[in-house]
Specification:
- This protein has helices at about 1-25, 25-30, 30-45, 45-50, 55-60, 100-125, 135-155, 165-180, 190-220, 235-280, 285-325, and strands at about 65-70, 75-80, 85-90, 90-95.
- With about 325 residues, it is mainly alpha-helical.
- It has one domain (about 1-325).
- The protein has a two-stranded antiparallel sheet with strand order 1-2.
- α1 packs across α9 and α9 packs antiparallel against α10.
- The protein is globular and about 75 Å long.
């Protein structure tokens, strides 16, 4: 149960961090929605509804969420509350809730409830002397696989302390990815600010774990690296060359984590929307049938990609932690 509570705290922390990242740039990302409204007013509603699929409108962040309703589009836009920006010096920070922020909080709640209910079902099954069945059994098997095959072998000795964080990262990203496949849903991990916040947190965990394991002198060796047995006269030149490379390597890891997750989740949705848009562009039953089949196949592939990207993010974070703890 202690791990369940830690999962709630970690999931909430991930949501708060990513929500702040998603909400802060909301004003800048509001432009596509404003432009879309201006386009509708200038050109007429029939252009949007009959000839186009607004790909950017579906992918970008916004100050509204879509809910099912009996309209022509089968969706209605519910405006989210607008809060007064926080002024810090000359900086204005808009923390008003956005579409992606709402789904981040929803993902955190789902992860917390899933861990809590699964833990109770597993504990009850163990008390009764039987293995857990159903969804609880699947959760136990998935959790044990990620822990035994992904986290501990890559983090290395005494890696048990990183299990709650990395398990929470896996399930949090997975739920965010899957929520984007639900009708009227939104993919928060298709927002570079969200993936950047997750990558920044991973960067802090990687570097702090290195500091704690290697000590100050050992950690400085990961920045100012000198191969053993190097002649003294060569040390200044090697430091001049290797130090920028080591710093770039440290920054490249979280950058790769952020861009990989963002690009994969955005590309799949853009491709599905583009295929569906062919139906409205050509007004052909043949093109519509073919594009629907291809879009369905891509959606099934997107389910696999949702699991794969959560797995890859967790795996690479564990690998980077292990490499830092055993640096050089």
């Amino acid at each position: 149960m202690n791990r369940v509570m830690r999962s709630w705290v970690l999931a909430g922390g991930l949501a708060v961090l990513a929500t702040g990242a998603a909400a802060a740039p909301a004003r800048a990302q509001e432009a596509p929605h404003v432009e879309r409204q201006a386009f509708r007013s200038a050109q007429g509603e029939h252009v949007q509804s009959e000839r186009e699929v607004d790909i950017m409108g579906h992918l970008a962040n916004a100050h509204y969420v879509e809910v099912p309703c009996f309209s022509r589009r089968l969706a209605c836009e519910v405006e989210l509350p607008h809060w007064r920006p926080i002024e810090i010096g000359g900086l204005h920070i808009d923390l008003s809730p956005t579409k992606h922020a709402v789904y981040l909080v929803l993902a955190a709640i789902i992860v917390g409830l899933t861990f809590t209910l699964s833990a109770r079902a597993i504990a009850k099954a163990h008390r009764e002397g039987r293995p857990p069945r159903g969804f609880a059994g699947a959760m136990e098997a998935t959790t044990l696989y990620i822990r035994q095959e992904v986290i501990l072998p890559n983090v290395g000795h005494h890696g048990e302390g990183y299990v709650p964080y990395l398990l929470t990262v896996f399930f949090f990203i997975l739920v965010c990815n899957l929520l984007g496949l639900v009708p009227w849903g939104a993919t928060a991990t298709g927002n570079i600010a969200v993936t950047g916040a997750l990558a920044l947190l991973a960067f802090l965990v990687i570097e702090i774990s290195g500091m704690r394991t290697l000590g100050f002198k050992g950690y400085m060796g990961t920045i100012f690296f000198l191969p053993p047995g190097l002649p003294t006269v060569m040390k200044p030149l090697i430091l001049l060359i290797m130090t920028p490379i080591e710093l770039i390597g440290k920054l490249a890891k979280p950058f790769a984590l952020a861009v990989r997750l963002f690009a994969n989740m955005t590309a799949g949705h853009a491709l599905v929307l583009a295929l569906i848009g062919l139906t409205f562009t050509f007004h052909s039953y043949v093109v519509g049938g073919a594009s629907s089949v291809m879009a369905t196949f891509i959606m099934l592939l997107e389910i696999f990609v949702a699991f794969l990207q959560a797995y890859v993010f967790t795996l690479l974070t564990a690998v980077f932690i292990g490499l830092m703890r055993e640096a050089h």
